[in-house]
Design goal:
There is one protein chain. This protein has 171 residues and is of the alpha/beta class. 29% of the residues lie in helices and 21% in strands. A six-stranded mixed beta sheet has the order 3-2-1-4-6-5. The relative contact order is 0.19.
């Protein structure tokens, strides 16, 4: 019997002055229940609130975590820096903002949702800890296999949740 290959998933997070939230994001990646190998790259974009120091503490604790430090390139620049730093073994990429977190089964369910013709899975989201929002209200409709056209239809109404991509089309 041949052993099946373990999928390799990398989570890329950005952080800018998110010392209050980034720990929860890191812990949520560490707590994934999945047979996949999960790596986490966090790119700090010049934080001045102690975020980088906290990130270094987490990096010392978690073998799967790598922290990069850049200065004022913005969220897109930070995400791009993280994507370019991924090891070649990575097959799937999760984009996770520093003030968001993953449910413990996110990677497992995202891998299960992919079909041979699917390049990405976009999860629904709950908004929490934001004044004026209905806590735990589902903000984005669940669609089994959205097309790019369907994603653009959502732009006026919905914020995207966490995205899970095949690496191939990204890089």
């Amino acid at each position: 019997m041949t052993e099946s290959k373990q999928p390799v998933v990398a989570v890329v997070s950005t952080c800018f002055n998110q010392v209050e939230y980034i720990g929860q994001a890191i812990e949520s990646v560490a707590d994934q229940v999945t047979p996949a190998k999960v790596l986490h790259v966090v790119v700090d974009d010049g934080s001045s609130d102690g975020s980088l120091e906290l990130l270094r503490e987490y990096e010392a604790r978690f073998e799967h975590l790598r922290v990069l430090n850049i200065t004022n390139r913005g969220m897109a620049g930070a995400f791009n820096t993280g994507l370019m730093a991924l090891p070649d073994e990575v097959e799937y990429v999760v984009i996770l903002a520093g003030d968001d977190w993953l449910e413990t089964n996110f990677v497992l369910e995202s891998l299960a949702a992919l079909t041979p013709d699917t390049h990405m899975v976009i999860a629904g989201m709950r908004r929490v800890m934001y004044p004026g929002h209905d806590h735990n209200k589902l903000e984005m409709p669940k669609v089994q296999h959205p097309t790019v056209d369907r994603l653009w239809e959502w732009r006026p109404t919905y914020a995207w949740g966490v995205a899970f991509f095949r690496r191939e089309p990204l890089i």
